[in-house]
Specification:
- By secondary structure, the chain is of the alpha+beta class.
- It contains 26 helices and 39 strands.
- The protein has a 16-stranded mixed β-sheet that branches. Strands 17, 18, 19, 20, 21, 22 and 23 form a 7-stranded antiparallel β-sheet that branches.
- The longest helix is centred in the first third of the chain and has 26 residues.
- It is globular and about 125 Å long.
Length: 971
């Protein structure tokens, strides 16, 4: 035995002990656990979309070229687009580019290149496009950049338009603000410029020069022609279609969770995986996924129930959940995308609470752009008529801009302050003093932190003048007067040198406004109504004569103290300026020097700014002595005027026909100083050469509305102060479909875009007092040719839609064209389902140009296609609210229909077939798959009680319903 024991001991190292077996099993269990976690624990979050895709309607001519391609080939709808590819549209063809909520629409005859696609880079535009020709409409959910030959426009969480037609550029900011970077010929940056909300710029490539790097913002505004978005642009068909589609409420890109049990199940599952995870990267991924699931449920089920208590609890959970990863770039990206997806949520709703909570988390010293979101909210609140809430948002926005924060981000603050100012202009008819106080505080911050206080003061003076002008245009005369006076005192203009730019421009324009306000106080007692422009023009001419006489009387009393001493002959520009001060227009090229007489000049083609009493222009040629300010050898309309007169006396004679010896003595009344701004003739001389240009512009503008004015002589400027009111005679409008032409006369207001005092040549008709210019042509032909054609067209359209299962009544329709082909409608509904929608229908092509309901919005879609899609969304949405989730595969009925057959609905281990009776709100013919029994009818509550649907809230026990007789199903 001892020998055997020795032998066993000798071989013992080659046998497995119990301890080794145990350790092996232990490590095997760990490996299996890791395998299970790896197999079943993958996060459900879908990866972000990398490549944009293109979509377009069938029949459209869309072409694409690859980076190495020589020619353009036909594009395929839905194909992905990558850097280096080019895309272009043909005539009457339009395309859309989609990338994670960013939408770029291409107008016809547009060509773009895809330059950069930033997937993860922070502070970079999500997509960079090169616009070679045409127009792009950009709805930037993140930020999208458009490069032009000499500039780059960056659209940040807003809606805007870029147009390029070599060498002209136009950038139009519709919602939000746009950053514009001007480039030198070598591609380097020259200047950075901001285009505020509802503003636009236009410039030529060759206009961008190196000196732009030295210009102040106020000078760049003039160089780039910054101004309000032209109504003519907004009325373009392509722009109107885009605007109607993009000013709607944004929805989140991801699907929301509506079931509490689904949320709890997913969250606990992910939390368990997080506890088992041993890798930090894995833990981070799981926390991101749990954060995503929580937000989906909060904005889904909690928002649907309107439970602010649940929302508060979930937001606290969210803060705790993200605390370890609060600086993670993917988390910041998740929060930003979800924050901007929640647009225009009702105040105090769970979604609104989530938006405010996310904004608080995202705000940090390195992210001042987030404060722009307050301005977007402010726009929505002012547009929706909630000024109290708007003031709270304005105060919140300004409270973040402390002196230190402004100092750290001066350019961003300047941009946001300008956006705030443009918002006040847009709503000048309703903003109150509290919102203007916020603007004033922002101006104080700008001045306090400015590196060039004079330039900043000049910009603020211009902005305050704009605000006053818009108030006057909105007939808020008393408010405008108060704001002008406050501005003069606040900017301390009375203490500044007379030559200071801010003081000079303010006094010049404020005096113009003061005249309008004074006339409003005298004629309509400053009530909220428009001015009689003809009466105002007469008043203005009288005021101008009084000011001229007063100035001459003052000069006479002061004597040689103000006598001008001429040391050198004047230049031709100085001569033209001397004429301009007397309200005479003369171009430099029409002024000739007289040999051997350095102070003598001959003037040709001169014209008075003011017109003769009969409305005719007054033109003349004459000789002029600069040292004596005397004009002689005058010829007016080919007739000589004998004598030697001062320029001012000549103007009075020319306007009134009064001989010089009969001129009345100058009055001693003082009519200056209405606003204590000082007296200056310059205030009235800013209109010297503008009238002719205004006539050309209004003629072109009316032509875009199919109103043709054959000659500029048929346009009379009736508001010489602001050049906004005109009298048009002999304008021609035409119904091209039926070859009908009508001549008409009217007054036109280029600010309100409306026509009034309308009359027709050789036609008798009862016309409205005022009509928007966009509706004028259709209104005229509708009025002239009576209701017969309209009623006939309405009946035809109602019948046409009825054949597609749609019910519409005539009282809910309005025609948008003179030929009665395009109708705008309200409250149209499906005959089979309780869905109402509104929009515009073109009967010629049997398409809705635009159509929207509570469930969806579509453009350029046929009635059957829209009805089917709307009905499907209604059925799935309604059943989902009853706890029954179905897909397209479950629906076996062609929609829309009053009864919808649902097959293979799975609930637990049961597969159920039934029919949804839409009209009676019941379920019919309910049966289990594989069973021959059928329940003829049930309510939704009965269906839930027998386990057919999920209830989002606990249901108390109820007596079992008495089912209707069970009818065996015949195989």
């Amino acid at each position: 035995m001892n020998g055997n024991d020795t032998e066993n001991q000798e071989f013992q190292p080659y046998h497995f002990s119990q301890r080794i077996v145990f350790l092996s099993l232990f490590f095997l269990a760990i490996n299996l656990a890791f395998y299970v976690v790896a197999l079943f624990g993958q996060p459900t979050q879908m990866p972000r979309v990398v490549a944009p895709t293109v979509s377009f309607a069938s029949g459209q001519e869309i072409f694409v070229r690859t980076p190495y391609g020589v020619t353009f080939e036909p594009a395929v709808a839905g194909q992905s687009l990558f850097e280096g590819m080019s895309l272009k549209t043909g005539s009457d063809s339009f395309a859309e580019i989609h990338l994670e909520g960013n939408l770029i629409r291409m107008d016809q005859n547009t060509e773009v290149r895809f330059l950069e696609n930033h997937f993860r880079e922070a502070n970079q535009p999500r997509l960079v496009l090169g616009l070679d020709s045409g127009s792009l409409w950009v709805n930037a959910f993140d930020s999208v950049a458009v490069r032009l030959p000499r500039a780059e426009a960056v659209f940040f969480h807003g809606v805007a338009m870029a147009t390029y037609s070599e060498p002209l550029n136009r950038i139009t900011s519709i919602i939000g603000s746009t950053d514009l970077i001007l480039n030198d010929a070598d591609g380097s940056d020259l200047a950075h410029f901001s285009i505020p909300f509802r503003q636009q710029v236009a410039f030529a490539d060759q206009q961008i020069i190196p000196d732009y790097s030295k210009l102040h913002y106020s000078k760049l505004k003039k160089e780039l022609k910054l101004g309000p978005v032209s109504n003519r642009i907004l009325q373009e068909d392509w722009v109107k279609r885009n605007t109607q589609g993009d000013l709607r409420i944004f929805l989140a890109e991801n699907h929301y969770l509506y079931s509490n049990s689904s949320y709890q199940l997913k969250d606990k599952y992910l939390a368990t995986l997080e506890k088992l995870s041993l890798l930090p990267a894995r833990t981070r991924t799981l926390r991101l996924e749990r954060s995503t699931i929580l937000l989906k449920y909060l904005l889904g089920g909690v928002q649907q129930r309107g439970s602010k208590v649940d929302a508060k609890a979930l937001l606290d959970t969210f803060s705790n959940l993200i605390s370890p990863i609060k600086d993670d770039p993917e988390l910041v990206d998740l929060m930003e995308r979800q924050f901007y997806a929640i647009q225009n949520a009702p105040a105090d709703s769970p979604a609104y609470m989530a938006r405010e909570h996310l904004r608080t988390l995202l705000l940090n010293p390195n992210n001042p752009e987030m404060l722009r979101s307050y301005l977007s909210d402010l726009d929505f609140l002012l547009r929706s008529g909630t000024p109290e809430q708007a003031l709270k948002v304005a105060d919140l926005w300004l409270s973040h801009w402390t002196s230190a924060f402004v100092k750290a981000h001066p350019d961003e603050f300047e941009l946001q302050a300008r956006v705030y100012h443009s918002l006040m202009l847009a709503y000048a008819g309703q903003v109150d003093s509290s919102l203007l106080t916020v603007l004033e505080k922002a101006e104080d911050l700008r001045l306090a932190q400015s590196s060039d206080s004079e330039e900043t003061l000049f910009e603020i003076a211009l902005e305050r003048l704009d605000m006053s002008k818009y108030m006057v245009a909105a007939a808020r005369y008393s408010e405008a007067k108060s704001y002008l006076r406050t501005s003069y005192a606040k900017l301390n203009l009375g203490e500044r040198e007379a030559s200071a730019a801010a003081r000079e421009i303010f006094i010049k324009d404020a005096t113009l406004l003061a005249d309008r306000i004074a006339f409003a106080e005298q004629s309509i007692h400053a009530s909220a109504g428009p001015l009689d422009e003809k009466a105002f023009m007469d008043y203005l001419n009288t005021q101008e004569r009084d000011k001229t006489l007063e100035q001459r009387f003052t000069s006479f009393l002061e004597g040689s103290k103000t006598q001008e001493v001429l040391k050198a002959p004047p230049t031709i520009p100085e001569v033209s300026q001397r004429f301009a001060t007397s309200r005479i227009v003369v171009l430099d090229q029409d002024i000739a020097t007289v040999p051997d007489a350095p102070f003598e000049f001959h003037v040709a083609n001169a014209r008075l700014v003011d017109r003769a009493p009969d409305g005719s222009a007054i033109t003349f040629e004459a000789s002029y002595n600069y040292s004596t300010n005397g004009i002689y050898d005058i010829s007016m309309g080919g007739k000589p005027l004998r004598g030697n007169y001062s320029l001012d006396d000549f103007v009075r004679i020319a306007l009134t026909g009064t001989p010089a010896e009969e001129l009345t003595a100058p009055p001693e009344t003082n009519v200056s100083g209405y606003l204590d701004l000082g007296s200056t003739e310059e205030a009235q001389r800013s209109q010297v050469i503008a009238q002719d240009l205004a006539v050309q512009l209004v003629t072109s503008e009316l032509a875009t509305y199919d109103i043709v004015v054959p000659s500029a002589t048929q346009v009379e400027v009736t508001d010489t102060a602001t050049l906004t009111s005109f009298r048009i005679t002999g304008a021609i409008i035409e119904d091209t479909t039926k070859k009908r032409v009508v001549k008409t006369n009217f007054n036109y207001d280029s600010v309100t875009k409306s026509l009034s005092d309308i009359s027709l040549d050789a036609v008798s008709a009862v016309l409205p007092k005022e009509v928007p210019v966009g509706q004028f042509v259709s209104m005229i032909f509708t009025t002239i040719y009576g209701k017969e054609e309209q009623e006939k067209a309405t009946t035809a359209i109602i019948a046409q839609l009825a054949r597609n299962g749609m019910i519409l009544v005539a009282s809910d329709t309005t025609f948008a064209d003179a030929a009665f082909n395009v109708v705008t409608f309200q409250k149209m509904r499906l005959s089979a389902m309780p869905i109402e929608f509104s929009g515009t229908f073109d009967r010629r092509i049997n398409q809705f140009t635009t159509v929207q309901s509570a469930l969806l919005t579509r453009s350029n879609i046929t009635p059957p296609a829209f009805a089917s899609e709307a009905a499907f969304l209604f059925v799935t949405d309604y059943l989902a609210k009853q706890g029954i989730t179905v897909t397209q595969a479950n629906i076996k009925t062609t929609l829309p229909a009053e009864k919808v057959v649902i097959q293979d609905y799975v609930r637990g281990d049961k597969v159920i077939n039934f029919t949804f009776d839409v009209a009676n709100n019941r379920l019919l013919d309910i049966s289990l798959k594989g069973s021959s029994s059928v329940v003829k009818s049930m309510t939704f509550e009965e269906f839930k009680l027998v386990g057919g649907g999920e209830s989002t809230a606990p249901v108390a026990p109820a007596p079992s319903p008495t089912p209707e007789p069970v009818v065996p199903v015949t195989p």
